[in-house]
Amino acid sequence: MKKETTSLKKLAQELNLSVSTISRALNDHPDISDSTKTKVQKLAAKLNYVPNIFAKGFRQHKTNIIGVIVPNITHYFTSTILKGILEEASLKGYRVIISESNNDAVKQTEMLKTMLQFNVDGILMSISKVTRQVDDILRIIDNVPLILFDKASNKIPCSQVVINEEESAYNAIEHLINIGKKRIAIIKENEYSYNSERRYAGYLRALKEHNIPIDEKIIISVDDISLRQGKRMTNLLLSIKNKPDAIFAITDSAAIGVIQTLKKFNIKIPEEIAIIGFSNSINSTIIEPMLTTIDQPGERMGATAVKYMIEEIENPNDIGNKTIELKGNLIIRDSTFKAS
Amino acid sequence: MKKETTSLKKLAQELNLSVSTISRALNDHPDISDSTKTKVQKLAAKLNYVPNIFAKGFRQHKTNIIGVIVPNITHYFTSTILKGILEEASLKGYRVIISESNNDAVKQTEMLKTMLQFNVDGILMSISKVTRQVDDILRIIDNVPLILFDKASNKIPCSQVVINEEESAYNAIEHLINIGKKRIAIIKENEYSYNSERRYAGYLRALKEHNIPIDEKIIISVDDISLRQGKRMTNLLLSIKNKPDAIFAITDSAAIGVIQTLKKFNIKIPEEIAIIGFSNSINSTIIEPMLTTIDQPGERMGATAVKYMIEEIENPNDIGNKTIELKGNLIIRDSTFKAS
DNA sequence: TATTTGTACGCAAACGTTTGCGGTAACGTT
DNA sequence: AACGTTACCGCAAACGTTTGCGTACAAATA
Q1: How many CB atoms lie within 10 A of CB B218?
Q2: How distant is the Cα of B75 from the closest Cα of chain A, in angstroms?
Q3: CB contact under 8 A, B53 and A118
Q4: In chain B, positions 299-328, which contact chain A (CB-CB < 8 Å)?
Q5: Does B132 touch chain A (CB under 8 A)?
Q6: Is residue B26 within 8 angstroms of chain A, CB to CB?
Q7: Where is each HTH lacI-type domain found (chains A, B) (predicted)?
Q8: Nucleotides on strand C with an atom closer than 7 A to protein CB?
């Protein structure tokens, strides 16, 4: 447990130079001659000098730390985004602090505050669907760059990196229409969920543009979508007189719940009812029949979020306010299309 | 982008007190009268004072940051551990920096070094299975407390938090024996994988204690276990003359690959061949038949790792060197036991 | 030769916090 | 009244780094 940290002072003493010269030599300052630069850098390497990040961050109000807040790290798609974030950040010399909001609004703002305490250079956030008011979040923007990803909000003026959810959902529904489905149900979340609302918008537009009537009875909203909710809502959908011939579940896990209960009732998939999910989670290839779904480029989303973040960190004057849309990719599998 | 940070100095000026008094008042120092304490604390709350962690950490060589290194954040079980770590850490006032080693030994030691640069108070690590030499890791221990979790090593003298993998595997094999299986294959990883070796040890002990001969031909090792490898090795196992009547796959995803190829060959599960996995991943309940497996308490593992870490941080004299074993839990499902 | 320019380096302040030490006043004790 | 004790509080240093400014010397210019 020894702490034999080599500081600038130690290097200075060793070389009979001043601390400032050492500092400048290591930072490649033009005022320093090449000969001393190399001399200093060699000794620094030899003595395994590592700058004290805290002194540095303390001095120049820069920490090279990016804060990340996500609702649930356990969620597979989220974890792929995080992978992209970690990768890109470490490539650019940044560290990442991750916090979970657990879909708890109070905890979320608390997280934001402690992030500020830690003087993070920027905050990447996927806002919880339980977020009702954005005042606390808006206050953050005054202090530090903020970029939203995956779960965004038009109430917050900042850059956002998202999937083209509306269009992807549109493509999914159009695919269902193309295979002859005419009565397409949707299982979605309530209106506070960004992802759900965007996908729902794509659903509505696809139906309208293909002149398919919209029936409120097969538009199902739940507060907390899940596999279990997928099961329950399928039971509900099967109980109405005019059953759907396709179900778009806003989420892969819900779609899997749908498949499981349809199988329980021996309903043929996709002939009687086709199913489509969203996310291309691992499970979607394990369930039988394999689930048609939309693949989301998680790692790429994380990486681009970090890129734009560093952009904003290094140019603090122009705060970005653009929305970057990454394309989702429809993956057709057995739950909508049976290879003959 | 305004930085109107309220510092101790500002509070001091406002109240006509010295900076030291403010500092002590906020830290509940006995030298300060109750009246000024409340006065200071009220103003601090009103002016939304947040201590500059970098000044603090800089001053007292304590960062309240715990570094975490995992092979792959995307791995479900790993993400549950991380959830536990984040939870417990934030409860105790610590922040967490996460890095991925991506099963790359060079990157792993690099991560360790940058963690040290950031002056983390301690490092939690799940060592990559590609780790061949532990010299770099041993050097870390001199500087900062280290605790290993999930993937451990007896070559590193530090506290370790693991699952009772050997015993859990033993229980799994015993369960197979109890349902009448006599020729039990195992699909495992090479000898550098901690988890694999422990589970293999349990496998061997169970067979020995039940007087079942050990046959090298049905002991299969692969370098990088996965669903695909599960499939390929099942093909291999089915090609030998004396087929196994049960397969223990070291991993749920491999076990799922086993199930999928057995189904392809119309082999009855569990009557002809029973299957058992390890981890109780989400997938294990989605595959049909549902997979018998061992549930690992991921969140609890993360939380206890953090607890012991904080223990070591706050008592730097007694470096821990104990191994904490958390109990895995055999979950019996259809892949080994058909309810009649 | 006198003046300017440029090069290479040092001095010292500053960042916000903690903390050992010293000091003052009020109080209690003989 | 003199002394010791206690309760509060301020001074100033320290942590390691960066950086504006000053300065010494050499080279270039007039």
Answers
A1: 19
A2: 8
A3: yes
A4: 316, 319
A5: no
A6: no
A7: 6-60
A8: 7-12, 14-22
CA–CA min distance A203, chain B (Å): 27
* CA neighbor of A85 nearest in space, from A72, A101, A74, A96: A96
Contacting residues of B for A52, CB less than 8 Å apart: 58, 119
**Inter-chain CB proximity A119 and B76 less than 8 Å:** no
Assess A142–B contact: CB distance below 8 Å, yes or no. yes
pLDDT tens across the length of chain A (340 residues): 444 678 999 999 999 999 999 999 999 999 999 999 999 999 998 988 888 888 888 888 888 889 999 999 999 999 999 999 999 999 888 889 999 999 899 999 888 888 877 778 899 999 988 778 888 888 878 778 999 999 989 899 999 999 999 999 999 999 999 999 999 999 999 999 999 999 999 999 999 999 999 999 999 999 999 999 999 999 999 999 999 999 999 999 999 999 999 999 999 999 999 999 999 999 999 999 999 999 999 999 999 999 999 999 888 777 788 999 999 999 999 999 876 5
Q: How far is the CA of B31 from the C1' of D2 (A)?
A: 27
Domains of chain A: 8-51 (no CATH), 63-163+298-327 (3.40.50.2300), 165-296 (3.40.50.2300)
Q: Which tokens go with A135?
A: 């005042």
